[in-house]
Design goal:
The complex is a heterodimer of chains A (197) and B (63). Chain A has 197 residues and is mainly α. Chain A has 7 helices and no strands. Helices cover 70% and strands 0% of the residues of chain B. In chain B, helix 1 packs antiparallel against helix 2. Classes of the chains: A mainly alpha (197), B mainly alpha (63). Chains A and B meet through helix 2, helix 3, helix 4, helix 6 and helix 7 of A and helix 1 and helix 2 of B.
Chain lengths: 197, 63
Amino acid sequence: MTPFFYLAGSVAIIATLLAVTRRHAVHALLYLIVSLLAVAAVFFVLGAPFVAALEIMIYAGAIMVLFVFVVMMLNLAVHAMEVEREWLKPKNWIGPALLALVLLAELIFCLSSFPDTPTAASIVDPKQVGTALFGSYWLGVEIASLLLMAGLVGGFHLGRHAIAGEEKQHVTHTDATRIDSRGDLVHAGSRGTSHAA
Amino acid sequence: MLNASGLAFIAAGSRWAQPDGQIMFLFILAMAAAEVSVGLAFVLLYHKKQLALDVDAASELRG
């Protein structure tokens, strides 16, 4: 079991590193999805099959798909390529990266000072999770449902006028202003594409 | 980042073979879903205002 853990863990780390260094937004999102799948494999090894399946279904299957849909629908990747090239220069990320490296060294030191390597004691199956969820943690379940309702109402309200305005804008902006946007840095990618509204 | 903290919770729950770690991860997942939906609704709204999604230009939340 242990080689599975290390393999899935290294896949997760490499995929995340690749995700944060990509210039194209859709490439970064796809690498992030791979990282989430690798973490789900780690959850399986740790003896938590319930949240492993939930991670694939909800995190990689709903949240990341939502991200990919929005990026593809608004054509964000093409518009942001020039800005990303500027942002990925070392002088922009070297400061926070050094501080995070200090924290990582701290974490590794703390973890390595405990000599025992705990493996999964036993598999915590969904029935146990369900019993505890609706037994002792029922209040958290209610609050989580309130939070999801708030997210639903907020997302609906904010997105209601956005879609209608977006469609109108695409019809008027693409053909008429394509000639004017030659010197515009952000519209650089949209010259070759045609948005068929 | 949310996923990483959830991984820490799962590992802790697996250490003592208790379901509490998985329950905490469930709540983190629900919170991440709500946050992502509202955040992406903001992105859509901002995209309607101007085609350029420049974070430096978005200095005020009004509108």
